[in-house]
Design brief:
This protein is α+β, with helices and mostly antiparallel strands. The chain contains five helices and seven strands, in the order E-H-H-H-E-E-E-H-E-H-E-E. A seven-stranded mixed sheet has the order 1-2-3-4-5-7-6, sandwiched between helices. A hairpin with a 2-residue loop joins strand 2 (59-66) and strand 3. It is globular and about 45 Å long.
C-alpha cells in the first residue's frame, strides 16, 4: 500500500476537475444553498485558476495517489519571508479515510515545508467540520484565530473558519 504525491500540471486540468467533482460533493455539498457546490468547484478548479496557482513558484500542488489510484489533492504554499507554509488544500476521497493516509500526508507536508525552510505550518478549517478539526488537533495544530467566510452561496451556519498552526 503505497502513498505517492504526483505533481499536478496544466495537462492534468481535466483529471483534477473530474476528481474534485467526484470527491468534494459527498463531504461538502451540505454547506451550500440547495446543496449546489458546482459553482465552488468550478471557481477553484477551472483552467484559469489552475494556471494561476501553478505559476506560484512558492507552491507545490499534487495529486495524492494510493496503490496507483488518484484519491485526492494536496497544495502547499511556502511563505518564505515568514518561514511558514500554508497547507492550502488537502482533500481525500472519503472511501480512503481512516486508513492512516492523512497522517502520512501530514508528515509529507511537514517534510516539504521543512525542505522549504519553514519553521511552522498553518491551515484554515471550517469550525463545523468536527472530524477534520479533531484530526488537525491530533496532529498538533492549535487554533490561533477565527473568522467568517464571505462566499455568497454558503449557508450562514457554515461560514465559521479557524486558522490553525503547528510549529515544525
Amino acid at each position: 500500500m503505497k502513498l505517492n504525491l504526483k505533481p499536478i500540471t496544466l495537462a492534468n486540468h481535466e483529471v483534477l476537475l473530474q476528481l474534485m467533482q467526484r470527491i468534494y460533493p459527498p463531504a461538502y455539498k451540505h454547506l451550500w444553498i440547495n446543496n449546489d457546490c458546482n459553482w465552488y468547484i468550478n471557481s477553484q478548479y477551472n483552467l484559469k485558476q489552475l494556471t494561476k496557482e501553478l505559476q506560484d513558484l512558492n507552491a507545490n500542488y499534487y495529486f495524492v495517489e494510493y496503490n496507483n489510484k488518484t484519491i485526492g489533492i494536496l497544495r502547499l504554499v511556502h511563505q518564505k519571508p515568514l518561514r511558514t507554509t500554508k497547507l492550502h488544500r488537502l482533500y481525500l476521497d472519503q472511501a480512503y479515510q481512516g486508513l492512516g493516509l492523512g497522517q502520512q500526508l501530514m508528515q509529507l507536508s511537514y517534510d516539504i515545508a521543512t525542505d522549504n525552510l519553514s519553521k511552522s505550518i498553518w491551515l484554515e478549517a471550517m469550525d463545523t467540520q468536527l472530524q477534520a478539526l479533531h484530526f488537525y488537533k491530533k496532529c498538533g495544530f492549535k487554533i490561533v484565530d477565527s473568522y467568517a467566510l464571505d462566499f455568497d452561496l454558503i449557508l450562514d451556519q457554515f461560514r465559521g473558519m479557524h486558522k490553525m498552526t503547528k510549529q515544525l
